[in-house]
Design a protein that fits this description.
By secondary structure, the chain is an all-alpha fold. The protein has two helices and no strands. Helix 1 packs antiparallel against helix 2.
């Protein structure tokens, strides 16, 4: 059962350096927010706990969206 499509082209693109720098900053900020939430809970500062968890959740969603976002694969790659 052949339909003439015997070859597949897989295009792999490296992420730019600024993406990895932003990802590292994102991870550090996530760690700080979670640490702040846990420490505030131990000190019974519930308002700070809520703010920290909400900020961490919003930042996590934005980070996952940024990680999964795909650029247009039909666009020609720029020479380095």
């Amino acid at each position: 059962m052949t339909n003439g499509d015997d070859y597949f082209t897989i295009i792999m693109r490296k992420r730019p350096w600024w993406f990895w720098a932003t990802a590292e900053l994102w991870l550090l900020l996530e760690i700080v927010l979670v640490q702040t939430a846990v420490a505030s809970a131990r000190e019974s500062e519930y308002r700070a706990v809520a703010i920290s968890w909400i900020a961490a959740a919003v930042l996590a969603v934005a980070g996952v969206f940024g990680w999964l976002r795909r650029e247009d694969s039909r666009k020609p790659s720029e020479p380095a």
